[in-house]
């Protein structure tokens, strides 16, 4: 019969595979968050640059100013939308992190159980070996040849 620790090691390997998958998903969520945050910063930088008006000539017709103002408003909308994406990304990353941590804790618990069973099985083998040695009759003394002389 297969020892309990060996059976549980198979379960532990499956749990570790799931843990790695959770970790990978957390990393993907972090990468998406980083990308969204970088895009948000880029949009904010564009907004700062355009709001300063360096690109506008000094004398601008009012129709151009209205278009410019609408452009800034659309840019502000894009910034708000991107900020929502960043916040959603943070929540997703945090959620994935919690899932990974929970999976990790279960793996660690199972590792401790497997180690405990393996230690108990080892102690049982040692005890059985010692008992078998104790149950053997004592070995006869070595044969000694009579000395001459």
CATH C-level: Mainly Alpha
CATH topology: Helix Hairpins
Number of strands: 0
What is the 3D shape? rod-shaped
Q: How would you classify the quaternary structure?
A: single chain
What does it look like?
The protein has two helices and no strands. The protein is mainly α. The chain is rod-shaped, with a radius of gyration of 36 Å. It is 83% helix and 0% strand. It has a single domain, classed as Helix Hairpins (Orthogonal Bundle), CATH 1.10.287.
Q: Main attributes?
A:
149 residues, mainly alpha, Helix Hairpins, 2 helices, rod-shaped
What is the topology?
Blueprint: H1 4-52, H2 62-135
Short description:
With 149 residues, the chain is an all-alpha fold. It has a single domain, classed as Orthogonal Bundle (Helix Hairpins).
């Amino acid at each position: 019969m297969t020892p309990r620790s060996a059976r549980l090691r198979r379960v532990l390997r499956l749990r570790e595979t799931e843990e790695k998958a959770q970790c990978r998903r957390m990393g993907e969520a972090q990468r998406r968050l980083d990308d969204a945050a970088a895009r948000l910063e880029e949009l904010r930088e564009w907004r700062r640059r355009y709001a300063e008006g360096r690109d506008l000539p000094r004398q601008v017709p009012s129709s151009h100013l209205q278009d410019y103002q609408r452009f800034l408003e659309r840019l502000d909308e894009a910034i708000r939308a991107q900020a929502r994406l960043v916040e959603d990304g943070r929540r997703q990353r945090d959620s994935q992190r919690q899932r990974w941590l929970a999976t990790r804790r279960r793996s660690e618990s199972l590792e401790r159980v497997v180690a405990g069973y393996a230690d108990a099985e080892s102690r049982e083998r040692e005890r059985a070996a010692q008992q078998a040695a104790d149950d053997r009759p004592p070995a006869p003394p070595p044969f000694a040849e009579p000395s001459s002389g």
